[in-house]
Specification:
The complex is a heterodimer. By secondary structure, chain A is of the alpha+beta class. Chain A has four helices and eleven strands; from the N terminus they run E-E-E-E-E-E-E-E-E-H-H-E-H-H-E. Chain B folds into four domains: 74 residues, Dockerin domain (Type 1 dockerin domain); 134 residues; 285 residues, Alpha/Beta hydrolase fold, catalytic domain (Rossmann fold, 3-Layer(aba) Sandwich), CATH 3.40.50.1820; 203 residues, Jelly Rolls (Sandwich). The longest helix of chain B is centred in the middle third of the chain and has 22 residues. The chains are: A alpha+beta, B alpha+beta.
Amino acid sequence: MHAFCLTSVLATSSALTAADGVAPAAPNAVPAEQHVNNTPPVPPTPAPIIELIEARPFTLATSYTQEWRKDSQPIGAGYVIVVRVPNDYLYPRQLAQPVLFVGSTVAELMNVGYESGIVVAVVPSTRNEAGALELDLTKSPIYFGQPMLPETVDAAIAQQQLQLATRAGISAMSAAAVDAANEKSGTDGPVALVDREALDRLAGSLVRTYAAGETKRADELEGKLGHGKDAEPVIVKP
Amino acid sequence: MNGWKTSIAAIVACTVSASVFAGSDCPADITGDRQVDGADLANLLGAWSGGAGPADLNGDGAVDAADLAVLLGGWGACPVGGDVIERELAAVSLTSYPHAAFTQSYNSGSTVHVAVDPAQLPATGDATVDVFVLSNRSQLEWDADPVLVDVRGAPDVVTFGATAATSVKPLATDGLAAGQDLSVGRGYDLVVDLNRNGVLDGGDLIDGRSDAPGFWKVVDLTQNGPLSVSQINSFDTNYPAIASTFQLERLYYPTDIQNMDPVPLIVISHGNGHNYTWYDYLGQLFASWGYIVMSHQNNTQAGIEAASGTTLNHTAAVIALQASIGGGAFNGKLDSSRIIWIGHSRGGEGVVRAYDRIVDGTFNPPNYGVADIKLISSIAPTDFLGTNSATPHGANYHLMYGSADGDVCGCPDNDIADSFNLYERSTGERAAVYVHGADHNDFNCCGVNDFSGPAGTQIGRTAAQLIAKGAYLALVKHFIDGDVAAKEYLWRQYEDLRPVGVDPTMIVDLEYRDPSPSSDIIDDFQTNTSTALASSGAAVAFTVTNPNEGIHNDANTTFTWLASDPRNGMVRGRSTDLTKGFLFDWNSPAMIEWAIVPAQANFADDAYLSLRAAQTTRHPNNVAINGAITFTVTLVDINDVSSSINIGAYKGGVQRPYLRTGFGTGSGWQNEFETIRIRPTDFLTDATGLDLTNIKTVRLSFGEGAGSVQGRLGIDDLMLDKD
């Protein structure tokens, strides 16, 4: 830093006009019709799904803690469901998205689903003393609740969402539809899985089957990535 | 120029720096060519019987025989001697006062100018000199070897004018090599060899005599670096603390890393619906410049807490598992004491939340700590968690944002969509890059096209990522490596300095703030909420109209200008946030004037006077201007000597907001703060007589004669920066 004082010299200054040294002006107003907006608005909720395609009940030998719920308990059983929904409900957005509920249970989405309109989801369920799943798909509507973060959903919020859905006339799937979805799974009763990784693989196989264009996501869930050649270094910039 | 000799005397008398011009060692050299000869004699005889002036060699107010005696007594070459003068010399040429901006960083292929102010350095007036560009030498090296060896083979021969305005000269520097090893800059020293003897000696001027260079030539920051890069496409961490669905990482590192010292770790946390494989452009950039990069699966769908958990645990995992990743390819070479977190959208909030969780003790990393997080960067982050939980605290923080973001939109009706909330909460050193025409997913490879803005303004992914690469390389080099060459890219007007590879039509606004103790706050509006009182405790006077001091929070849900919403467009804080500023307008000449408290009065030891300013969107005054806004900054010293600079001199001005529509009538999106930094010494140009050691007032002047004839601005963070 170097500084001088020059008491014998009067101060001088200069000022610019507004146009000096600045970028040239562009048109100031944009007619609304020339405005582009590629992001679809968040669709209204509550909203029903279009179709329950498949439902696979499962049990786990080792439970896991679900992060899609504020008051989450260890998860040891539930359903993997495949549902067809209006695409816009799955539009990948950073702000709050509609949350998929089954009754008052938050469903964990396993794929993006926006392009296919088909999403695979894990729906936790408790079991009764006999070991049967307590969540009854013929009594629990499947619907999109209000936009929010799943991790903020507690029992009160979930119950409120169910009430809104019920009031909106969204009802559970018919027994026939649920039976058809169960039959599609080709299993009789819950699939006994070892742990969450096995559940991921199951979900991955369903993503591969139903969600066109998401084979990479299926690979991720099925544990096909991260090993072997995939995990070996390659030189990308010599 | 009347008073020329008197000015020399004044300079000599008032020197305040330890290494400054020591006065003319050759008083009879009227022409400044380091020779006392016939030209000087002719000059003196031409002024015979006149009054004070260059020919009045003894300064008695008359040109007479006494002066002739002085001239004849000094006949011949000027003596070598006196002090070497350390000055800022490397400069950018300006079209108006102060005529030159003394800067440190110059793009590869650009022209460096040499600038002097003959009013302050009389020996340079009309002088023909040799200007040497030399490879940077340390002070010890200069002391040991003052011989000048120009890296270009020969010096420039430059003839300065009589004034500062005519003494800014281009140098043949376009071809200078840029960058050196893993530094983005290559340092050079600049010497004005006044006596043209090829040696740095008495009376010569030097920029870079200390260990630091006089200027840097900087590579194209948009380009990958010199190192070969290896990539591991996917690694399954199988790390117990991470949910099975989010175990995968993609890694990038210098291929030859085992022959390098341990290098910093850069972690990339993607956004919702995004993928860990979508950031190759950043991963390969950073690795090629000597960093390990890990991009991981991120649990963003559940929410921000879940995302922060994946960032925290993946960081721990890559440190813990380095012996097994890629067969231990970078084992032992990861410096876990230098970690950078970069997050996008929900992941951008996630990295901030992750830091907050370590700070508040709700997460204790097993193998790193809060002090190891050297920088957090968010690309268009959400703000779900709000004031107390989505805060970077005092961490170094950076924000990257696109004005055409159709997702995290910066909308006035939803605090979650206001990315700048997080930036404003940062109390550390911070920087922001606001890119006109970029959308949310332009910053990854493959997200949906969410562009929202006027047709024809979409810059696209390629352009946005070039801007991002340039910004990120400068950012990391500055914050992690202390690479001085990178710092000016964080704050100089983009119109003035942008990475070489960025198209010159791109519009980018930069914010930068140096925290205390590197800065001295005059007024940041956080304390002393009266409009008549600065944060420093000194008085504030103003004649601008419709003043408003408060939180940077748009009070309603539209961007339509309404007098009832004086903070329109300030989508930078929730009602619970603390960030505050000052807004005002003018339709005729007006001013704001801050008194300076005695403890801050010495501006001579400060590197910059800094403030940030933003146009308020859709205000009729700004709509009428329809472009960038300028105003004038004036310093007044204790003797009422003043000096003024119009900010437009440094190019750019205060940018008009992006002309996006929606949320009411009119065009214009959120307010865009830009940082303006002026060297206090710039106010001395043309020997203004300003006493920088005793400034009593800082004044901003608006309106005709001072800048834009009307406008409405928000201003904030008026401070003095040491560096």
